[in-house]
Design a protein that fits this description.
This protein has four helices and 13 strands. The chain has helices at 46-57, 60-66, 105-113, 225-228, and strands at 5-12, 15-17, 32-36, 69-71, 77-78, 96-99, 117-126, 130-142, 148-150, 154-163, 178-189, 195-201, 207-212. Strands 7, 8, 9, 10, 11, 12 and 13 form a seven-stranded antiparallel β-sheet that branches. Helix 1 packs across helix 2. The radius of gyration is 23 Å and the shape is elongated. It starts with a strand and ends in a 13-residue tail after the last helix.
Length: 241
Amino acid sequence: MAPECIYYRIFDTSGPVDVKYPLEEIIDDKNIGRIAKSSVTPPFNVQNLKLAIAQREGYQNIFEASGAQLYTTSSLQVSDKDQLPRGAGSSLENVVQLKFPIKLKSLRSDKLSRFAGKWQFSRHGSNAQNSYKHFSHFTLSKTPEGTISAVVPERFTTTYTGWIGSEQSSDTPLPTSVQTKLELIDFKVLDDSTISFTRINKRDGTTCKMRLGPTRPRGQGCSNSLLKRFFMTLPRRDTHH
């Protein structure tokens, strides 16, 4: 049985803010999020609920510095020590509103600036038959709406550089280079100043979840071995392994 949840919206001084984990499977509204009641530190009151929502959205430091107010409607504020009114936040029709007294959109947008630019990587490796080199490059840009997007699909190239073992003659032609186009979508800013995104192989439809950040990211849920070996560093740097 699914845990009991509280549905919420985030507001700053400019209006509604897109949540980090929109409920795309049930509603086409990027301003509504959901948090399990079990994620709220006891006792379950308004103050602890506000902190839990701020933590989930990556705004804990801002919340602790500037505070935020919880509303059950656009004008009805509830105090920190109160219990949440019955039915508030219990459904998509009764969403609570967490309102920050500062502009959050610009803060999140500034985080994205570090990821804009050209990314590239190269890596040497081998399999049972061949030695090879992987090379990949793509460019990310910050949109006017304050999000990150890929300018063009990622181009991932495998070039074979030699034979392994003595069975093949040095005169035997090497396999032809293989180039794969990967669509990059669904960029999200994470709590630890990293972003996640999904890579889609446009040839066969396989997908891979990736993360970019100050330390080497990890591929998660990759659907083939080539994607599992894909690593990146910060923009405008080339890494050799």
